[in-house]
Design a protein that fits this description.
The structure holds 2 protein chains of 2 kinds. Chain A has 9 helices and 22 strands. By secondary structure, chain B is an all-alpha fold. Classes of the chains: A alpha+beta, B mainly alpha. Bound molecules: protoporphyrin IX containing FE (HEM).
Chain lengths: ~450, ~280
């Protein structure tokens, strides 16, 4: 039977190792340190940006260690897994002894240990019978459990409460496991994506954030309208999208979605996240002759060539940009176009929608400007599904309740010993608690006062 | 009287209280200590009055919101909580030496809020993302936790000072509670702080989930709060290991508070940041 002893021993040692608080402390410190790395080195940027910042050697070293997407790397997740294993093994290891303490029919008291702690003492002239009937009701009112044991020269009352609070720590530890399970479920069965919907249009699928691929939905989302309001200072005040959910083309739900007030439908959450204006399809242009002041107006779109009057030649809009940058300034939405005079070289013209006079800077005979036409907003929605959330939230609740119990409630045991000495009864009160040793002093004093007041 | 004048006055009151506590400790004059307590009580009235006034003022400007929406307001609230938590400790443990370490922190927070050129005192309207009751609960819980950690930090320093004390009898360190008591008290503070830090992280996660659909995104601020949480969890567990008593825990408590400060201010120095309530 010698053979099986070795693996048994190994399993035992492994078990002990995983049940140790030393491993916990080590893991927590390593996790804290590695999280620091993740905040100092920005995560999930483009390889080019990293290469530029750290140079080739460190770029290669860091990418080999997955440091650019650290929180999803195998080694980080492995440590989290070790922590979870540590919690589970530790809890199982300790639970059986805790369980015995909590669910014992008649709890045992160690009088030597009790009396080794802070004590209060007073004397009484009553008989032991009287003292029992005076003290017991008080203790039964204050404690969940109390019993009398007769001794040679007197008696002892044992009282205790809060046995169950020893479970608080288990709740905290279980809550951490719940958070991890919830997170895991979310990352396997959930998704996180976004979509842009022009006013009046509807969509049936969204684009996933991580992969950029399409995720079809079981229903359609229509944006009926979008509104943005501003404070006087120009700060945005509210983004509001009127959304309708359509099933087989029929509207089933209508709601205005604003930031912090998402729409939930069939386990999918729809959040307001951005907005913008659609690229204009048609644009009004005006051409002013600087000399004569005569103005020629027309409507056009990108790519369409216009013949200009007199000798001004041809003009074509070639590009639209959402945020045109001119010598480091953001001019906002702008078109660029090409003016080809009959005589001379073609010139590039920039037409920011916000600054109609911008083209005067070119000091040409012809001033061109683009005017804003009726424009349509689109709303940007973030669309997520996370079936792990209920588990995570129950972890949250459990952690708070568990911490409260573990920190501020304790298993308290008292003994009230009465001994006859020279015709008088000496009453000794002592108590212990599984935590907050300093607070016990005050509690013992209080109990002593309560009992002596009964005399 | 407007809120910023009242809060400036409060800053001076806290400075004066800190002076009284330190003076009373160094020169062993208990009378100045009790004067310090009364001064702090005046400071609390000014501090909470200032916050309430600011709340009213924001409504008068037509952009009413709780005064917990930016760095300035959170620092003011932080001072208030430090002082309140400290006074509770003072009352329960009947020892004013801790005040010499706690009140300067409240004073510094107020002074930093009023004097730093980077911190705007203006009452600003709320960005859409900040319009959430979870945010208010989030800020309150976080700062109660931070305040408890701040006091534990003061206690950690007291522990180290007292432990180093080699010439007993001639120093004001005698007025400190004994080492066992400092250790126990700082453990109490850390448990209190840990509960509220956990609550702060949780309410922040719930807020993020209701605003963006993600309860956790590993952005630097979130991650630093988690680092802080790991450090204090380490401390709580280290007490169960042999040899990890007293001094080492005092160091951990100091490191923990530095992590709190970094979570609060330092994260803005990192690249790719999410500034206050982006
Ligand atoms: C992030 C993970 C963890 C958190 C947040 C956590 C939290 C806590 C808290 C709040 C306490 C109560 C401390 C006190 O009463 O002062 C505690 C106690 C304890 N924890 Fe953890 N814990 C974690 C992981 C672990 C792990 C992995 C182990 C495995 C060995 C462990 C073992 C213990 C033990 C033995 C106690 C003392 C229980 C007692 O009072 O008898 N913890 N933990």
């Amino acid at each position: 039977m010698k053979k099986s002893k070795i693996p048994d021993d190994l399993i035992n040692r492994l078990w002990k190792y995983f049940a140790s608080v030393k491993l916990t402390v080590t893991l927590l410190i390593i996790l804290a340190l590695s999280c620091i790395i993740g905040t100092v080195i920005p995560q999930n940027e483009s390889p080019a940006a990293y290469f530029f910042r750290y140079g080739e050697f460190f770029y290669r070293a860091f990418s080999a260690l997955d440091i650019f997407d650290m929180y999803h790397s195998w080694w980080f997740q492995f440590m989290v897994f070790l922590l979870a294993a540590n919690i589970v093994v530790c809890s199982i290891d300790r639970l059986s002894s805790t369980w015995k303490v909590i669910f014992k029919k008649s709890p045992s008291f160690d009088i030597a240990k009790l009396k080794n702690s802070y004590k209060e003492e007073f004397t009484a002239v009553h008989t032991h019978g009287e003292l029992k009937t005076l003290f017991m009701p008080v203790l039964l009112r204050l404690f969940k459990y109390a019993r009398v044991e007769d001794k040679e020269n007197g008696f002892v009352i044992y009282a205790e409460k809060g046995r169950w609070t020893r479970l608080g720590v288990y709740a905290v530890h279980l809550s951490v496991v719940l958070l991890l399970i919830g997170g895991l479920i979310g990352s396997y069965f959930g998704f996180d994506g976004s979509v842009i919907i022009p006013e009046g249009k509807s969509i049936k699928s969204i684009i996933l954030r991580n992969t950029g691929s399409d995720q079809p939905l079981d229903f359609e989302i229509r944006c009926d309208d979008f509104n943005v309001t501003f404070y006087e200072s120009g700060m945005p005040k509210e983004y509001r999208s009127g959304l309708t959910i359509l099933e087989n083309g029929k509207p089933v739900l209508k709601k205005d979605v604003i930031v912090n007030d998402p729409l939930h439908y069939k386990g999918i959450n729809i959040f307001q996240s951005s907005y913008g204006m659609l690229e204009p399809e048609e644009i009004s242009l005006s051409f002013t002759d600087r000399k004569t002041g005569s103005v020629y107006r027309t409507k056009t779109s990108v790519g369409k060539e216009i013949e200009l009057p007199e000798t001004f030649g041809k003009f074509v809009l070639d590009k639209y940009s959402r945020a045109y940058s001119f010598m480091g300034h953001d001019l906002g939405e702008a078109f660029s176009g090409m003016l080809t005079p009959i005589k001379g070289e073609p010139v590039q013209v920039i037409l920011p929608l916000k600054y109609p006079g911008f083209d005067k800077m070119r000091k040409d005979e012809l001033i061109i400007s683009a005017e804003d036409t009726q424009r349509q907003y689109y709303t940007g929605l973030q669309i997520t599904r996370d079936p792990g959330v209920p588990i995570v939230y129950s972890g949250f609740i459990m952690m708070i309740i568990g911490c409260f119990i573990a920190f501020f409630m304790s298993h308290i045991r008292f003994c009230v010993e009465v001994v006859k000495k020279r015709g008088k009864s000496i009453v000794v009160i002592a108590g212990i608690s599984n935590k907050n040793k300093i607070g016990m002093e005050a509690k013992t004093k209080k109990l002593a006062k309560l009992l002596s007041n009964k005399l | 009287m407007n809120s910023s004048i009242l809060l400036s006055i409060t800053t001076f009151i806290y400075g004066f209280a800190a002076f009284l506590y330190i003076f009373s400790l160094v020169f062993k004059k208990p009378f100045f200590g009790s004067l310090g307590t009364w001064t702090l009580l005046a400071g609390i009235s000014g501090n909470s009055g200032g916050l309430l006034l600011r709340w009213l003022e924001s409504y008068r400007l037509g952009i009413g919101h709780a005064p917990l929406s930016n760095l300035y307001e959170s620092l003011i609230f932080f001072s208030l909580v430090i002082v309140v938590v400290y006074l509770v400790v003072e009352k329960i443990y009947d020892n004013r030496s801790i005040g010499a370490f706690a009140t300067p922190l409240a004073f510094l927070a107020m002074a930093y809020a009023s004097l730093s050129p980077n911190i705007s005192e203006k009452i600003q309207p709320l960005l859409p993302a900040l319009k959430s009751n979870w945010l208010i609960v989030h800020v309150i819980t976080c700062f109660i936790g931070y305040a408890a950690f701040a006091i534990a930090f003061g206690l950690g320093i007291m522990f180290l000072l007292k432990q180093k004390d080699s010439k007993p009898g001639i120093s004001f360190l005698k007025l400190f509670p004994d080492l066992y008591m400092i250790d126990e008290l700082s453990h109490q503070m850390i448990m209190f702080g840990f509960l509220f830090l956990s609550g702060g992280i949780i309410t922040g996660a719930i807020w993020a989930n209701s605003a963006w659909g993600r309860y956790w995104g590993w952005d630097p601020k979130e991650t630093w709060s988690l680092i802080t949480w790991f450090i204090y969890a380490t401390l709580l567990h280290a007490r169960f290991m042999r040899g990890w008593r007293g001094k080492r825990l005092a160091y951990l408590s100091i490191i923990g508070f530095l992590a709190v400060l970094f979570t609060y201010f330092g994260v803005n120095l990192l690249s790719g940041l999410h500034s206050y309530g982006q």
